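Below: protein 1.
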Amino acid sequence: MNKEIAKRRYKDVLRPDVINNSQGDFLATHVPMKNLYLTDHAELSDQDRKSPMTEERIYELVLPLGEEDQFVLVKGPSGAGKSHLIRWFYTMLELRKPDSEIVLFIRRADNTLKGTIRQLIELPEVKDLPDRELYKKLSSASTRIPERELKNTIYYHFVTLIESDDGTAGNGEERMISNVDRKHLITLLQNDLFKKRLMAESGPVDRIYNKFAENKSSDVNDEVAEFKCRDLEIDSVFRDELMNAGADQKARKIADRMVGDDEFVKKLADYMNLFVEKVIQRCTGLEPGDLSKVIEEIRQELFRQGKNLTILIEDITAVSGVDESLLDALLTDRNGYSDKKMCRINAVVGSTDGYYRDKFRANIKGRIKRFVNVPDDVFDGDQTGLIEFFARYLNVISLEEDTISKWIAVKADADQYPVHTVTIGEGWGKYKVGEKELNLFPFSEHAILYLYNKQDINKRNPRALMREVLEPYLADSLEDLHRFPVRRVSLEGVNPDLRNTVYNRTDLEDGTKLRLVQFMYIWGNGTNHVYEEDGIKYIGGIPLQVYMELGLPIIDGKEVEKPVVEHAQEKRAEEAQKRDRETSSTVVENEQVTNVLREVDRWIEDVNYKLNIGATTKSVRALNDVRKNMNDFLYEVIDWLAEGVPIDVVNKVKETSGAFLVAFERQTTESNAFVILPASIESRKIIEAFVRWSEVGKKSWDFPGSTDYLYRVQRWSEHIKPEIVKAIMQYNGKTVNYFSYAVAAEFYRLILNGYCKEYKNPQNLTPLLLLRKFPAVSAENGHTKAWNDLRKMVNDSDGEKSRTCVLQYFNLPQGTAKVSQNYVMEYTVFNSQVKKVINTGLRYAEEELQLDDPVRKRREYSIYLKKIQDRIEGVIQEEERAINSKLDVMRQLVDLDTLEEDEDVREVIREIKKFYEQANKSHISAAIHDRSDLIGKCQRNAGMIVKAIREALCIQDIVDPVEKLIRLSKDPLKDLSLFTELLSTVDSDVRKTDQEIEKRMGNVSLGGDNSVETKYAREQMRIRQCRENMEAVKKRHVGG
């Protein structure tokens, strides 16, 4: 390589669109194509594949320049080399054609219709057309229009055409969609939200625009200008957006049908694609027959001049919108139109397989009789051609353009083919083209073959090789040779001896080991064989100076005889067979060991490869076992208590599904791992030890070489232990604190169950309270529904988990038991940690909780405590409302300030008793109801009622919610409710008595009969006495 020239030239030379490359670069890089197929039918049969042809033979058969019209379709996958072949046809025609043959070459240009038309109007044969109006129309069609304006034009042409359609897209065939659906579709297309969706980048309008307007990049655009089903797929979210935006009812109806109905969506896409050609024609101002007429007039003019026409179209998709009429013109045989006097035409047109299959109409397909099929893998079975392909490109990027031009000036004479001056990469290998030797830096023959075979089978075409192999490796070598090769490729099917030798060296860093292994296997022959040839020392088939150039270490190899030089092709085949034999003869002591190590080697060598963890297939079963066995080993060998890790913390990790102490970098399934083992050689050694323990030793260290593997594992576990301990006790810089949340939750449980009545505030709580057994209490209390609902919640399984956590966290397990109901508490630490929780007042803000703890079993305590805390405020409010309601009733009926002692309550009760006794004597109906039970309860609980009143009044002045909760846990509401019920009952009876007395008074007769007056006078006196007694009670106890 000539480094300075290559830096400037390589991107231009490796440009994927061969049509835009210079003729000199094209010819200098051209490698004859050998695997081509000429048929009279589109699809290749197995029999066809047995007869490949060279490009020269194809040229002789399809371009004989006879008198018969001919149409040839060059067909193949994208990137297979169709452009290259057509360009080569053009070059050969220019060199070999007679003067009477006119060759029109329509290049891919910028891969758009406008670009193609611009080429046409620049051709002399078109400029001289007698029909000047047609020339003007073509010129107008090539005019540039602002992108936004043209895209809007495209969109509204679709709307207009669909509005004037009857559902058949003007084909006169059966309707594709009903008139109702068509009208609904129009309304949807007129909706701004849906329009924005279709006009988005990479959407259908953008694809159509890019195909006939201006290409935004130099990349080859093989996308067809059409609507795809994904463009019209609507989900429920977008449908809701339409509704919220006030979309028309018709638009909403069709949107509803499009949600989840793939068949209907496809029908709409197919229907809209019927208008693509018409839309493009309208936007360019062209009519279906315009290009056809251009071809016809060219043929007529050439006929008058006694000349013939060969037309080559590199990519038919570049004339999307008028392709059908153009194909029709190219397929028109002059024998059927003798009156038009047209010249003979040879047409060679390129198309992708997909475009031919989906876009060529049946009548067009039926008229095509000659096909040149270009396979995706043009180098299949042609190793020489593949290496020459690389060699020529690597040569041309190191040549100045004027050097290439001088070669073209001598008609690209093969004997004068220019070769660059090597300034870097001497000794990397050469490829002989004729008598010329081309330097292969930064590749070797073996590297080219190996990297080619590593490519996906669908990416072995020339364009993909340039994009994914040639250019990236070339760029890496130009950037920093002391890091080359930067890219890692998985090494499969190779003899592992060399790799193991390198990996076991302790004096090298992993990066250096990987570079060395990659280089020796891919660029060299994958051995440590050392020999000399012409005074040059070779190691693994690579000269010593190359290792030094890359800054790679030199390994001690095995001295062997210099290999016999054979014919290059035979030598490559023999080397491949030899390596296959070596690989197959490698001793495989255990299938699972081999499978795991093969998988791990790919993992550490290829940065894009993911370790296959989680699958259940036989080939990776042992790898899953390795991860499990590694974690089990670490759980057992680490003395967790000695490292300051409570056993409960360890158990929480073990019990959480998907949580591991260690897992692997870049594994296929996600896992919550505390330590990620990097894709390194050291990790490979540990994995190998565990897979041998499992598969060879049958879960023991009793197997050959086990001492070394066990020692390696013990060193590794000691090395990784501090990291695991730190990771298991911390995350995101925070120390795990779920014990504190469990303690707070347990205190709340005790409070809500009424076990903290003797405490005034949370700071008075004691750690010993947590160690006592407090069963859940019954629901027979005076609390509100909110209180009892929360109490029920804390008494369920989550509450039990919190209590168990509180007891287990600092429990010292005895013997081999990891969990025990016999608690031997590390009380000093327990006491200290609980007091810290008590000092918080049992309150934790949301940001203080560890709701993002990656371990689910630990995170549950934060979630549980948050659930409790979120409900406390509502519980307190409901309790206070109920208490205030009772106090309001009492204030209306008694003077609360006078109820200071038990006797004050009893005095009220005695007065109440007197009322009922007097009512009974006076035959008042209030005496009918037996209030003795209620009165008796209040009398017996007079002391509790006084305390409840005091507590209720005190709660009103408390601000701290947890302190309020503790006070409320004494259940003042229960006794307040009892006393309030008595007072309310008495108040009701008094009111009824008043009404009854008034009624009786009204019924008293004041007539002159003295005997009657005397009779009622006594009755009135008794009633008056009763009322006076009642008034006395009121004056003494009722406020106001």
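Below: protein 2.
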Amino acid sequence: MLAVLLLHVNRPVQRESLIEAVWGDPAPAYAVNQLQKYVSALRRILEPGRAARSPSEVLGWSEGGYVLRVGPGGLDLAAFERLVGRGRKALAQGDAQQAGAELHEALSLFSGPALGNVSSAVLDAERDRLAELRTAVLEERIQADLDLGRHGRLVAELRRLVAEFPLRERFAALLMLALYRAGRQGDALNVYHQVRRGLRDDLGVDPGTEVEELHRRILAASPSLSWQGPPPGAEADGSAADGQEPAVPDGTRGVHQLPMDISEFVGREQELRELRELVEAPGTGGAEAGERGVLVAVVEGMAGVGKTRFAVRAAHEFIAQDRFADVQLWADLKGFTPERAPVDPANVLEDFLRLLGVPGDRIPGGVEARAALYRDRLARRRALVVLDDAADEEQVRHLLPGSASCLLLITSRRVLSGLDGAHTIRLDVFSPQEAVELIDRVADRTHDETGSPAAMRVAELSGRLPIAVALAGRRLRTRPAWSMDELADRLETDEKRLAQLTVGRRAVEATFDLSYQWLSPAQQRAFTLLAAHPGPDCTADSAAALLGTGRGEAEDLLESLLDEHLLQQHVAGRYRYHDLLRLYARDRAADAGSLEQRTAAVRQLVRWYCAGAETARLSLEPWWHRGPAGDGALGNGVLSEEHPEVPHLADDADSALKWLEEERANLLAVSREAAQHEWRGCTWRLATAAHAFLGLRSYGTDCMEGLRLGLTAARGADGRARRARTLADIGMVCDSLGRHEEAARRHHAALAVFEETGDRHGAATAHYGLGCAAFGLGRYAESAERHHRALALFEETGDRRGQALVLGNLGLVNWFIHGRYRESEEQHRRALTLSEECGDRRVQAYEFAGLGLAHWFFGNYAECARQHRRALALFEETGDRRGQAIALNGLGLADWHLGRLVRAGEYHQQALTVFREVCDRRGEAVALQCVGYANWATGRYDVGEKRLHETLAVCAQTGNRSTEAWSLASLGHMCLRLQRNDEGQEHLEKALSLSRSLGDRHPEASALVGLALVSLNQGQLSSCEEGARQALALSQSIGNPHNETWAMITLGLACCFGDRPEQGADWHRRAAETGQRTGDLFTESMAVNGIGYACTRLGRYEEAERHLRAALTTRQHIGDRHGEAETLTDLAALMHATGRPDAASAYRELAQAGFAEIGVTGTQDHRVVSSSSAPRRASQGCRWDRGGM
């Protein structure tokens, strides 16, 4: 109401108008009374001292309406309209100074949107009118500022307004004019294109006459657009007014030397922000300087990275923000210009002093005197000095201003570390997104090609180096018939890439030439020769081997090239080229030296890596022996038996692992290089030496490539033994990757050679590999036979480590054959002893894990966890990631039974992640099955079922039939819990058939329990009992208490449903005792719940409630949500039987909510005992599944 009265100040407003404004139409019946209350309240607020019932002097009644009386100057809207009127009049009379002052003051009255906190149809219309008026006044005020020559300081404000009002063309026109007058013609034209594109995209129209005409005049550089200077007494940017002291001496007026900004500038937001923060700190850019010295920022980076463009953009941003507005000086120091020396700083100082108004005859002759006068002329001035392409610190030292109000911005290809107090901004190549944006902007292609995968290819092939990216875009623009894909294809060829990145006289290669020509001969040799290194990076050690120098000299050369930004250091102590610089260096190498010299250098590097890999493997595996250094057939006369020393590689496993990990990519690249040169001896030795590490870290793909190169190198009659060893190594890698059939073929081929040559140790290795492959294929009898043959041969040759490996595998094989679980445990113990004797910590870790699995099977879950923790510690110590995954999975199995269901799931998930990372498909299948079962146990059936189906898919791909049997059994039990009885039966029957064909009795027992539950759900109690007794007998025969407990619980259920609750209670008690003995909280709580249910059927209600509440507590504690809902159902039945209907109803609702939460629907309360105590048939909705792993 107050807002409406203020809009009609000193004029009567009818009651009906106020009611419509406040409540709208139709108004409520109480509107008139409420309006009177509002008036009274307003009068009390506006006139707090007015006596009661006395007439109001401020809000009165006149001519049938309320009048709000406000004196002159009391209403901001009236003041605004008055100031706007005076400003418009002054503008029409050409008095920009007066117009600007009036309009600035008018706009200052706004603190936000008019009528910002009230709303109605009347007020909304008035708000829109005032907003439009305010915007129009803003346009007029900016026009006045432009007439006063304040174009520099208007750019930032206008950019914001154009973004805020994208369809208001007047703001765009004003921005274009401000940019043009600031010397930024390119940016002005870019604004036009952005506006034009936006209008077309949004509205399908072109800009209006004003913008189009201004665009035409900017293109033509119309003199009429230039600022003509302020009228007498007016104030422009940086000039004086009203007799004030000038900001700079007369001679400096107009010293604005910055080059034109460019519209193609993209990215660099972080670096620009870094520079802005530096400048905006107290004491810079005209702020109070305090004790701080001159601000110096050095922009450094490799050739073509965009240092000059960055400096230009940063400088124009500062000017647009009215920083350093007094003086802007620019000098190209030509530090890397071909065929001419860098500019003498004395000459630069002479030019600067002339620009600063010093007559030529008053400029001193000496550089020191010139520098002193230069600092004096810039003292206390807001000056920006840009020194582009500096050669070194000495060239710029005399060009530093002396005042903290100045900014010195230097660009250089070198590291200028000798400038005290300078802040360094290092420019790197573009991000992928920035590079693609620049290509799109320069190439000016259709929307179909912008941001396309082809554009990303061009960006990457250009190394994301700004000059190369821009030239690639211009190449496209000058070749309209080319597609982005065609240019990318042309850039794919290394030999032609630099030639393609050329447009007219501009070329990436020429840019690099400027840096290369200033290198010393030693630097040029190092720069070109290092490009012969086949790997992605090098160290001082490997560079010394390649260059034929000492380590210290090599490091000095590397660091000097790093200072020249011709090399990069992505990790401390490691150096690499930018992709384009590597190509350039190779081109220069072809021009500079002979092929024989480069080949000799690379050969020495290959020797160095060969020695390093062998030394590292001996540190990892002291029992490993190198082969001969290289005879004529293998070495091709290239390698001698002497290898260079490998510096900085300590004789311990940790140092070896670190070196091998850091050099992994280089080792493979060097192997390829050796193979290409047919240095067969070293190719084979590299493959053999690196094999152990690559296998340890599960780098299967790299390991396979290296070994295949070694296999090709080991040809010829005298290379058969090495070929056989390589075949055996390849077979083991295939097995780790789940390619068991291929692994068997490789081992068979190796075995044939070993037997022919009488190599009994090699034959043992091949039999061992064949046993591993057969195990992976589920052929356990064959696997056992092969392992026994390998064991005999290892014993004959005295290889205790080989014996330990075989015994450990036999422990696993016997696990899956006819339930030889005790024999399996004993073999793991023997393997552990042997591995301790020979000092192989990795084999020890695997045997700890094997013993942990045995303890899990026999129900010693705490000991299972302990052994897997020991295994995990050793696996982490030796860097065996696959082993870590095995140990994590074992910890998950132990925790599952110990009632830590959530943590068990986390362990299994971690194991799954690692197995996938190391490409172990067999391990992936096992972990997937465990993840599925862990989700099954906690009631997350949707996730559990998905993971089990994923397990079956992996098993089908890898032939892992044992895990397939386990997964089918788990999936069957899950289906029973979800009341999909027929589907569950199908999965369980498949599991039973498969496990029997494999001789794997553990999943066989689980499948038997599940099928017994199927019979229970179908009401076939005798069939249920028969199946459960089979499962019990089988579990007892193999000594597995877990499935034994499940079988007893199932028998207990069958007895309860068969009207034998006393026997049912006995079976559940036996099951509970077994669960308690083994620490298996999951099955123990299930059995305790069964006791409670049986006691309810027997009428022993107090005992029943005690057991049911104990089961509920445990199930809630361990996170068994399905079990919790079952126990709540049984408590509801107990409450019903004992005449507590309210409690029964409450428990039933909780149970139903619990089942619904985990996705189990349609459950029936089959536990409610009738008054006649007649047993309920299982066919009446029995949803019990007590089966498990």
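The two ends are 76 Å apart (CA to CA).
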